[in-house]
User: Fold this.
Amino acid sequence: MDKLFPLLLDFFKTHRGLNMNYLYHGDFTHDLTNAILSFAENSLDSMGESTKIRKRVYFIMVESLQNITRHQESREGISQGFGYFNIQGEPDGYYITSCNKVLNSSVANLRSKLDMVNSLDAQNLKSYSAEMLQAGVISEKGGAGLGLIEMAKRSGNKLKFHFETIDSSHSCFYFQIRIGKPVVENFEKGHNLGSSVDSHKLLKANGLNIVFQGNFSQENVKSIVAMIEGSFSKSNVGPMKKKMLNLLIELLQNIYKHGSGGKSAEEDSRPGIFAIGVRNNKYFITSGSLIAKHKEAALTEKINAVNQIDPNSLEKLYAAKLLEEDVPGAKGAGLGFIDMRLRTGEKIDFSLLPFDNEHSFLTLGLSIKDKIEKNA
Amino acid sequence: MPEALSITATHDTPEIILNPETGIFKISKRSYPEDAAGFYKPVIDWLSEFRQNPPQEITFVFNLEYYNTASAKQIFKVLQVLQETGKQSKVKILWQFFEDDSDMEIAGERFASLISNVAFEIVSIPQE
Assistant:
């Protein structure tokens, strides 16, 4: 994952100003949609967002996600596994971006619909939506165009969109809505659709399905675990799902237990990032977090020590750690890296990249095999 | 004999039932709390008291979906108390794993190799 680590650092740096950034690329199932919704709800809740904002974000998310699932069905020969969803928490509001594949032949019609909605002011949006409801005009795909109107109405912002041509018959339809926070109305930065489109390209190019950047605490580790459970609930990754979750819990708890760079030393959340993807038909997970420079040498030594041990001695080391007395105030059992190696059957891939004067960026990468040979 | 101890599961802590009257002793679901030592302390204390005057036979069930390494250490402590209990009573440990979860099977084998005085059974159960 040597290429992925610097990339993770770049991404982390670029989006450092966000309160949270969640991205998903791939198939959208009903369970995944629910998982994303409750994850976002929990995240907004833990960030202390007002009910008004939460409700608006929720509504826009539901509409955007339904838009993806509605259009991903292969009625027009559009292949699955193409949806994209992104929610970015900026100081001035939430930016919700979705993407689905559309036929080039329907681009013009879609564009004129969007332009029309954008041309309406708040008052006109209101009367137009009432009119449409009464007339009961429903488009062929079950959408009434009403979705667009409602989204524009509730966000109070213009709809931002972009069509990216894929081939002679298909385009990627990107669509972004901002739910602004009134408190910082003066600092409005406008839409940032370009950044979300770039992120999507990055996910596609690197086989990434899920990326989340934000502040990690036990609370959001719980929401993330629930979200990943939902993401893979109906797919064929059964045996790997538990392994993935076990490893993910360990990686994420490492971020907030040993990470650094929080708003204050007392704060129990730490900035970090994680990604899940597929490479060479194997799932992998990777995490990035800040660690204090003075801890770098000891950490490197610790991981190298675990990497150098032969598998049989690894079991002995695990047993020895179990038998050790608890160290008062210790944040873990000292078993994390040993466990990662035992579960993956591989050495731990890691790097420490320069970040700033006080911190390095620690990245860990784990590949998930279907089955580990015993004593391998 | 201590009174029954019952802890309801949350998303990151397991369900724990320690009931001498019904003979049900069970730790199940997920275990990845922030402070594993703090969470398991009452459980280990309870078992240590229970050990002073145990019944002739007990079966202790583990049925975990996943746990973090901090919990692994605490689970091992629970097993160590059961190992002590096994000197006076007939203790059976039933380590259940879902049939597709080879990691949990391996974990059971690992614990079994480190614990004596008990009958340690590792059993596959169908996925829910």
